[in-house]
Amino acid sequence: MLLQTDDQTIEDLRLFSRREHNGIYDIYKHTSTRGGEEVLEKMFRSPLSDLEAINKRSGIIAAFTRLQTKFPFAPSLLDSVEKYISNSGENKDGQKPALGEKEINSGVTALIELLHAMRSFVETGDILKVTGLEDACKEMISLLNDPALQPVFNEKPKAKLAYAAVTAFDVLMRVREREKVLTVLQFIYLLDVYISVAHVASQRNFVFPVAHPKGSNLLKIESVYHPELKKPVANSLTMNADKSVVFLTGANMAGKSTFLRSFSTAVYIAHMGFPVAASAMEFSVMDGIYTTINLPDNLGIGASHFYAEVLRVKKMATQLGAGKSLFVLFDELFRGTNVKDAHEGTVAITHAFAGKRNSMFIISSHIVEAGEELKQKSNIGFHYLPTRMNGTVPEYTYTLERGITDDRHGMIIIRNEGILDTLATGKKNG
């Protein structure tokens, strides 16, 4: 089962690189093969919503982390095999793409060496110490021991082959048993992902989250931080059925968006079965994750920013109404309308979210006055990111605290920037 999410969430969390920044994917992308890179991207686009699948993948990667396993196949060897085996199909004219004699010889030799290396790894390598790959190992050993491939193992790796032998092996591996070869390659790509992510976990001291069954209503992350920051400030937050909604306040530049991305990224990555940037994490498996941090206007249907927000809330309401357990995050809910409507809408929607205790919600807002009305619901928790004034200069701790902020430093910042002086005299004083 796959976790429900969407392009808006993937964009909000900056999972993939854009011109101006790298993505979370790039942090984990240390694969040795092109095929492994493609498998990793698919995992990022298709997180899991099944406890057993999440625990299995997490356990495999954690085992390779403990073992400090190195990728057992030379990338150059795989490059040769991939180039060779990719020419097994037919072109648009129905003809097999031509490979030169030298290319065929190199491809056959490389593939023989690779199959020997694979058999050695599944029979004697670290993989035998990894819980969760037992069946895959047995299947691979069975495939490699198929009588059709026995001629491969009668040859020594890197041995010089006669022209007739090369021709016979070419027909065997590039035509008759091509599907077996592709199966081996796909398993290698999966191992590449597991081992490379294990290396990332070890190098960055990422933690493996503990997953709990759906409906257990727990989300606890200790010392979570954004993995792209060089000097991040870590924060901790616990949510459960008794605090299924968090109302977050704080001034601009206080770090709300960074915290929201850090926290929700950890929730997303945990559902992939991957290690996360935190010191500890426990979470209930959810049906879906949806964030709304940078919601664009939908000009294609003539929708304003506010209407785009309304449609976004409607989408969440539809899924919640169907009984889905979701992690939902809104940064500055209803920022696209006037303060009065935003206030009323924030209170009404947050109250309604509080009634869905099998889901988790984080709502950030500048409308601190809404907090007093929201205190009517016992399962709404209040946190803020403070601003400390050093004279007339605001300083930010980026550390989450309980309560609702009373910071009102907007005019101080405006005056510090000399905007009013510039408008009055044409130049900034000081």
Q: Can you tell me about this structure?
A:
- InterPro entries: DNA_mismatch_repair_MutS_C, DNA_mismatch_repair_MutS_core, DNA_mismatch_repair_MutS_sf, MutS, P-loop_NTPase.
- GO terms for molecular function: ATP binding; ATP-dependent DNA damage sensor activity; mismatched DNA binding.
- It comes from Pseudobacter ginsenosidimutans.
- This protein has 430 residues and is of the alpha/beta class.
- It folds into 2 domains: 31-204, MutS, DNA mismatch repair protein, Chain A, domain 3 (Orthogonal Bundle); 210-425, Rossmann fold.
- It has helices spanning 7-12, 24-28, 34-45, 51-67, 75-85, 101-124, 134-144, 150-154, 163-176, 178-204, 256-270, 305-321, 339-354, 370-374, 410-416, 419-425; strands at 210-212, 218-224, 235-240, 245-250, 280-284, 288-292, 326-331, 360-364, 380-385, 387-390, 393-396, 401-402.
- The chain has a 6-stranded mixed sheet, with helices on both faces. A 4-stranded mixed sheet has the order 1-5-2-3.
- Helix 13 links the parallel strand 7 (326-331) and strand 8.
- The longest helix has 27 residues, at 178-204.
- It is elongated and about 90 Å long.
- The model has no long low-confidence stretch (mean pLDDT 91).
